[in-house]
């Protein structure tokens, strides 16, 4: 046999027969199918047993509930053919699935997986995977930039990565997004090749896990999975054979370019604001903990991470956003680490300077050296963004913390003179340092 079709099943009596028939309809009959059934309360086992006269189909009954990731990993351990594919219990294959994709992989030994377009029964547009080629670093970078681009679990894979230990990782609490982490890890093994034609049919029957995920997009379990997904992506990156500089780039990309800004700005989609704040701060903290505890060799110089200054400025702005988020939720160590990373990317990032100044002056145990650093960051921010009232307010507070009252008064007057500078916190601080501000109507 050339291809093993792996089908983890659970309470699948309504659709498992459809999946089996799509396997039998393959124009290339050089395949076997292993169906592993988690303990179910319906007739899934009986339906599969009805297909067993076909010698290519094998049934495995699990004694204990493994869940979809555990059951899938159990199946991966049974693969003995050169190729394998996942045929999920509620989906079906195009008759040309095996012939077209095995032929493509046979012709391209540098590729580890191949897939076609996916037709969805929800009425949405077909999902079109993209070919991903290059070095392991380049492939992983492409996956982080577009996690739905390739290495989909509806493709055919070479079995060699499985022999090397590749498995799906558990993503607490419900294994949401385990497929995306698997894609990132698979990218380290070889290219992904994509065909334009539809070769897989994705069904969303109401009782399936896929349908549950679609209903639960903004629920607490899904949010926790977002955090766990990123932690696992970081674990994948830090255990590769990439250079230290490449690892650092990908770690930052998980949060800065891989949806970090969107992930950390979804308070309005969460009914419980406290839950949202906790969730978001855990995401930000996970990045820093993974980065700061990584075993990055101190003697290995980190190469320029983006040659294009515009790309470096973009990454710095994203990291500054994360620092601002961490400040809002009281995670000052996280914020300082993010702001530091931003300034390493782009010393001209005014927002990162502003955040660093704020963090340094609000440390209640700060020393004179920290006050001086706060003033330096604030002055750098005012030089970079002289028309931004917020950076002048930061400078006023930094100078006050350093004991420069006259300098603080000068900066708060400049703050108030700029658009957006007549804010209650500005007026309160002005009163603290003995400055009387003109009414806003007197401003030009």
SSE run: EHEHEHEEHEHEHHEHHHHHHHHHHHH
Percent range of helical residues: 40-55%
Largest sheet: 8 strands, mixed
Q: What's the CATH architecture of the largest domain?
A: Alpha Horseshoe
Structural class determined from secondary elements: alpha/beta
Give the quaternary arrangement of the chains. single chain
Rg of Cα set: 27 Å
Counting H and I runs of at least 4 residues, what is the number of helices?
A: 19
Q: What's the average pLDDT?
A: 79
- Globular, elongated, flat, extended or rod-shaped: what is the shape? elongated
Taking pLDDT < 50 over at least 5 consecutive residues as the criterion, the unreliable ranges are: 257-307
Whole-number total of structural domains: 2
Query: What is the spatial order of strands in the main beta sheet?
Result: 3-2-1-4-7-6-8-5
Report the end-to-end length measured between terminal Cα atoms.
81 Å
CATH class of the largest domain: Mainly Alpha
User: What fraction of residues sit in β-strands?
Assistant: 5-15%
CATH topology call of the largest domain: Serine Threonine Protein Phosphatase 5, Tetratricopeptide repeat
Supply the CATH superfamily name of the largest domain: Tetratricopeptide repeat domain
Compute the number of strand runs. Answer: 8
InterPro entries: Glyco_trans_2-like (IPR001173), Nucleotide-diphossugar_trans (IPR029044), TPR-like_helical_dom_sf (IPR011990)
Domain Glycosyltransferase 2-like: 5-141
Pfam family, one: Glycos_transf_2
Protein name: Glycosyltransferase family 2 protein
